[in-house]
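FIELD: query
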Amino acid sequence: MRSAVEKKKEKVEAGRAELAAEDKKLTRAKRQVDRTDKREVTAYNKKVAELNAMQAELELLRDSFNEDVDAYNAKLVRVGTPIE
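FIELD: result
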């Protein structure tokens, strides 16, 4: 169980790093958007929506990770340190 939790933790950390990198790109792109050009605004808004979807996905993964950690901790309380 511990290795599964650790693998999920790695996914959460990788997701955070990816989200931060994409957010940084989007922040730079925002400065360059011509707000009078409907296509540029639409393309930027699409990127914002994609970033929001990534964040929602990461939140679900983080919630699942936290549930796994809680379950693992409960197991430790019940049986002590498991040999895995």
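FIELD: remark
Residues 42 and 56 are 21 Å apart (CA to CA).
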